[in-house]
Give the backbone structure.
Amino acid sequence: MKLQCSIDVVNRLDSMRNTGRYLKSTLAVGKEPKCDTEYFILHFSSVNRNGTKYSVKFIKQVFVKCINEGKATIRFEEPPQDLCIKSETIQLKCFMKILKSCITGDTKDLKLGILSNISVTAKDNAPSKLVIRDRSEFPPKGLPRTLETLNISGLKLCNFRRDILLLKLLTMLDLSNNEIEKIPPEFDN
């Protein structure tokens, strides 16, 4: 599984512990090619395109107190680093559930890729902008949670799509030239 997120890597041995520098990143969980019981986390970012490999067995602690806000931290014993993660809440919860399965060894139902096959390509970048000009263009699995801009104009929609309420990163919404009569009160949130 891959998680699109922002990560601040904190080296606990460094005197400048908290840099507060979050970079757009991808985290991936996968298996070691020669061993079905060894799991690793790969961290890719724009600064580190080759990725950093962390062994799941060296996870010292996982902090999920703020997971409902889309924040978590994974603390590794070796190397002595913390991965401070910010992501979309539901995706982060799914990622942490899979990570927990890898830590506890309850992986019989997991279908994780082999680590050497995991890479980050341009296709992995989650969309931040979506323009829908026809009803058939709505994504079958729902609107991507990473959307910042959404344009659904001129479709003569009568009802407000409730999945728009799940777009926490959305800053621009265009529903012009539709026939929507009522917007739900939750929209203010």
Notes: The radius of gyration is 19 Å. The chain has two domains: 2-123, 129-188. The beta strands are 2-11, 23-32, 35-45, 52-55, 59-63, 71-76, 81-86, 129-131, 149-151, 172-174. The chain is about 10% helix and 30% strand.
